[in-house]
Design brief:
Layout (H helix, E strand, L loop, with lengths): L3 H5 L11 H17 L11 E6 L5 H12 L3 E5 L12 H10 L2 E8 L2 H10 L4 E7 L5 H15 L6 E5 L6 H12 L3 E5 L7 H4 L7 H7 L2 E4 L15 H8 L3 H4 L7 E3 L22 H20 L6
Parallel strand pairs: 1-2, 1-3, 3-4, 5-6, 5-7, 7-8
């Protein structure tokens, strides 16, 4: 890729391309928007953004929409099934068309990570925000996770954070590893043997499940992404829960001050017991709320003429 720093001033591709200072500024602006999002501040009123989601999404897509509306942006929502993509139009030409109509930023999720990076290389003339690239990256999720952890503990440095579940298919793990390590967290991973990832384990050590849960300050669970598995999982949902999920019994082993997180979508009774989703230790719905403020900060950084990012 061309000069990464130059690219990242206009786009958000992954946490690995951001400096600690850039991430800190995003978190500070997210805190500003958390305090001021109801004050009818609309700094980008009359400007246009487009959301292009080539994979199903509820949390991320609606979170971006709320963030965009809070900033005063006009939103164009792209549907692949009723677009010219079905006629063979390339993604570059689609985005270039949107830019010619006045769109200044495109939020895109795609199953193939290379598509997003190739779009940046071709430079259609707008800012591009990665809202989920295959199993490679999900930067705004990692940023909102970091914001939630910092919001709760005050500091991230020195915390032991366990990422547990389908490691080999998780884009959340990859983006989180970069940002959490950058801020001084001790990251460990755990999950089923068949879902381990040697590449990830060169960055974060693999720890047996019960040990990970007992010793972590943050227990972050990951969904089993069956849609990305080449072979069907042999375990039933109930069996997975008992063997690898955060059961009520395992949760009792957690540190009293530890918190539970999940990027979603979560499956009750699979990776987490239903009664734990809204327990006092759970920050799952706090993560959802924080996603709006973080995404407001990201969009503000990219659209701000002063070029903060």
């Amino acid at each position: 890729m061309r000069d990464t720093c130059m690219v990242e001033r206009r786009h958000l591709l992954d946490t690995r391309y951001l400096t600690k200072e850039q991430i800190t500024e995003i978190l500070e602006r997210a805190a500003f928007w958390e305090k001021n999002h109801n004050r009818a501040l609309v700094p980008f009123a009359g400007r246009f953004v487009a959301n292009l989601f080539f994979e199903p999404s509820t949390r991320t897509r609606f979170s971006f929409e709320v963030a965009e509306k809070q900033l005063g942006l006009h939103i164009l929502n792209f549907s692949e099934a009723v677009s010219s993509a079905v006629k063979g139009e390339s993604l570059y030409d689609t985005v270039k068309t949107l830019v010619s109509l006045g769109v200044e930023a495109v939020v895109i999720r795609h199953r193939d990570p290379s598509v997003i990076y190739e779009l940046v290389e071709k430079d259609p003339g707008c800012s591009i925000v990665n809202a989920g690239a295959g199993i490679l990256s999900h930067p705004t999720q990692a940023l909102l996770d970091l914001y939630t952890i910092k919001q709760h503990f005050g500091e991230v440095a020195g915390l032991r954070i366990a990422l547990i579940g389908d490691l080999s298919h998780s884009r959340v793990v990859r983006s989180n590893l970069w940002s959490l390590n950058m801020f001084g967290a001790q990251v460990i991973v755990s999950g089923p043997e068949e879902m381990r990832d040697p590449e990830l384990e060169r960055i974060a050590p693999y720890v047996p499940l019960d040990e990970a849960i007992k010793t972590a300050d943050v227990v972050m669970l990951l969904r089993v992404q069956l849609e990305r598995h080449e072979q069907k999982m042999d375990l039933t949902a109930s069996e997975y829960h008992q063997m690898y999920g955060l059961t009520v019994e395992r949760a009792a082993m957690m540190k009293p001050e530890a918190i539970i997180m999940h990027p979603g979508p979560f499956n009750r009774g699979v990776e987490i017991a239903s009664e734990l989703v809204e327990s006092p230790q759970s920050k799952i719905f706090t993560q959802k709320a924080n996603g709006v403020f973080v995404r407001m900060a990201v969009l503000e950084s990219l659209l701000d003429q002063k070029g903060r990012m």
